[in-house]
Specification:
about 30% strand, globular
Length: about 400
Amino acid sequence: MKTEIAIIGAGPSGLLLGQLLTVAGIDNVILERRSGDYVLGRIRAGVLEQGTVDLLREAGVDDNLNAHGLVHDGFDIAFAGERVRIDLAELTGGKHVTVYGQTEVTRDLMNAREAAGATTYYEADAAQPHAVDSDSPYVTFTHEGEAHRLDCSYIAGCDGFHGVSRTCIPEDRLKTFEREYPLGWLGVMSETPPVADELIYANHKRGFAMCSMRSPTRSRYYIQVPDTESPDNWSDDAFWAELKRRLPKAVADALVTGESIDKSVAPLRSFVAEPMQHGRLLLLGDAAHIVPPTGAKGLNLAVADVHTAYRLFRKIYDSGRADLIERYSATCLSRVWKTERFSWWMTTNLHKFSDDEDFGSRIQQAELGYYLNSQAGRATIAENYVGLPFAKLED
């Protein structure tokens, strides 16, 4: 088999890159080790930056997004007994975010790919890139018990943190940066109306809490727990009771509770791998970086990589600019590190890290107090939350 771009991984980044390439007439094949049902069963965040929405529209997968996405012009931070609204539209000149579940994004992209007749191999086992530093890379894999070789011009590694793509970068070239946080998010999904029209992030002496939503009738809530916690230790009643303790009274009183339809614990970590390119292999999304979910940046940062990779491939196939591949890593990383900083800042300042009133807790109070009570501080939060501009491959 032969294609132009071999994409390893059928998560949102692999599917979006494939859809953009297909629309542009650039042949591509996606290899995914899991089944399509498994991919759709992953429940993830759903706050989309404006740049993400714009790229989905460019890919022609915005019908459901336009019909069901919830446009938010702001969000709240509850701190020290107050509830401060970050007015995104006012502070950023009219920008906003859209709440639309990652599962729905994935489904829309899968349907578009099927309608276009583009090739995807689900349950493709043992996918392995080869000769990535040559002019003739290829990927071997097994599908339905049969071995295959896929020759290609470039490989896009969209196969996540535990995928094989990053391991293709030689150890003497690869450098990783990591921070693990001693906490996790216990998340509950319920078929209940959201407690507020916009998201609420709460800093509380008992620990962080967050109120989010997926639709006008489906809510998503989180509370901070130890990173070793099991969701099995929490009944629905216990979760709702603890969530109410961490929210402002007016919010807690308005909370509609119900049976959970999903309950899980997500650990929090920051991770970056450098470089994000080796030869004709590009890393995208979690294969190259992970952010804690506090700033709602995981999917959006992966989409930024897709934007850069897609623009690169268009330059290569439309203008013969194969030399630009050497700029891919630096272009992506310039935005990655800024986004990592914001996610780290939100995590550090909204979570409880000590039971004691120590230096760190006092600094946290001072930091939040300054940012939330300053027009410039709120503007900085808003600018990062709506999403920094996509980086350019060339001026």
